[in-house]
């Protein structure tokens, strides 16, 4: 069995996968591969969460592997691929930046963070510490620069589509994203299931659900307020089947 993305389970938390999926009922020798970001499991007794339910079996059967980080050669190959980088920036510019900021090279040794780096690069360039400065870039700096660049691009697309400037649009994007992420973390969920009241009525669900108009997620997903709709366009969300929504990546939600 392959369980991909333990850190992105709907509902969050730390379920005991072996027990929840009744793997003990399968023939002896049944195996499971479980993927998860290691920082999600920090402080947890994850051998008992992920392994067989019998404790003396867990230690003997649990095997842990870590994905190898990118080598410098693999990073260079990625950055030289024109499909992976901004067409206005050369591979040499990325390489020079990484040479001058070795702490960033250490941070972006996984495919996803390297992608974040490429998206954040314009913002990182403008905030590069002076040569004599002792300040260093952090993972938070990467995500901050990436989100600023994300909001800037979404603002440009929205302004071009409407043909008029919209005041404080990036601020609206940021406030919407932060408030939604905070609410999802409070509820310990990584996905929101939402059906607009108009759609509920069309599908005959509105009458059977008198609380539909009190859905707590109306604040972020209702289509009745044009300002909410506009702010949502700048949020790094993805649709998982039409009525289920999540951030593009779990780490965006956490940031």
Could you say which overall geometry the principal axes of the C-alpha atoms support?
flat
CA gyration radius, whole angstroms: 22 Å
Distance between the termini: 31 Å
Sheet with the most strands, sense and barrel status: 3 strands, antiparallel
**Strand proportion:** 5-15%
Q: Within the largest sheet, what's the order of strands?
A: 3-5-4
Question: In total, how many beta strands?
Answer: 5
H/E order of the elements? Answer: EHEHHHHHHHHEHHHEEH
Q: Which stretches of 5+ consecutive residues score pLDDT under 50?
A: 201-212
User: Structural class, please?
Assistant: mainly alpha
Total helical elements:
13
Mean pLDDT across every amino acid position: 80
Quickly describe the structure.
With 255 residues, this protein is mainly α. The chain is 48% helix and 5% strand.
Structure explained in plain terms:
It is a single chain. With 255 residues, the chain is mostly helical. The protein is built from 13 helices and five strands. It has helices at residues 17-20, 46-50, 55-61, 72-80, 91-100, 102-107, 111-126, 139-162, 169-186, 197-202, 218-221, 226-233, 250-254, and strands at residues 2-3, 33-34, 192-193, 237-239, 244-247. Strands 3-5-4 form a three-stranded antiparallel beta sheet. Strands 1-2 form a two-stranded parallel ribbon. A hairpin with a 4-residue loop joins strand 4 (237-239) and strand 5. The longest helix is centred in the middle third of the chain and has 24 residues, at 139-162. The protein is flat, with a radius of gyration of 22 Å. It starts with a strand and ends with a helix. The relative contact order is 0.09.
């Amino acid at each position: 069995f392959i369980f991909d993305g333990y850190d992105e389970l709907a509902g969050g938390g730390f379920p005991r996968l072996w027990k929840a999926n009744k793997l003990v009922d399968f023939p002896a020798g049944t195996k499971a591969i479980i993927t998860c970001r290691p920082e999600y499991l920090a402080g947890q007794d994850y051998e008992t969460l992920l392994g067989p339910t019998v404790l003396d079996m867990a230690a003997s059967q649990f095997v842990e592997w870590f994905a190898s980080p990118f080598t410098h050669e693999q990073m260079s190959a990625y950055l030289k691929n024109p499909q992976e980088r901004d067409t206005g920036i050369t591979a040499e510019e990325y390489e020079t930046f990484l040479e001058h900021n070795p702490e960033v090279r250490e941070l972006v040794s996984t495919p996803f963070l390297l992608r974040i780096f490429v998206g954040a690069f314009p913002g990182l360039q403008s905030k590069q510490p002076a040569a004599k400065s002792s300040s260093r870039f952090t993972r938070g700096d990467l995500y901050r620069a990436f989100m600023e660049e994300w909001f800037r691009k979404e603002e440009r697309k929205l302004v071009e589509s409407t043909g008029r400037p919209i005041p404080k649009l990036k601020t609206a994007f940021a406030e919407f994203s932060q408030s939604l992420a905070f609410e999802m973390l409070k509820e310990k969920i990584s996905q929101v299931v939402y059906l607009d009241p108009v759609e509920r009525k069309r599908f005959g669900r509105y009458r059977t659900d008198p609380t539909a108009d009190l859905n707590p997620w109306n604040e972020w997903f209702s289509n009745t307020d044009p300002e909410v709709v506009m702010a949502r366009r700048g949020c790094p969300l993805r649709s998982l089947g039409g009525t289920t929504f999540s951030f593009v990546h779990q780490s965006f939600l956490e940031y």
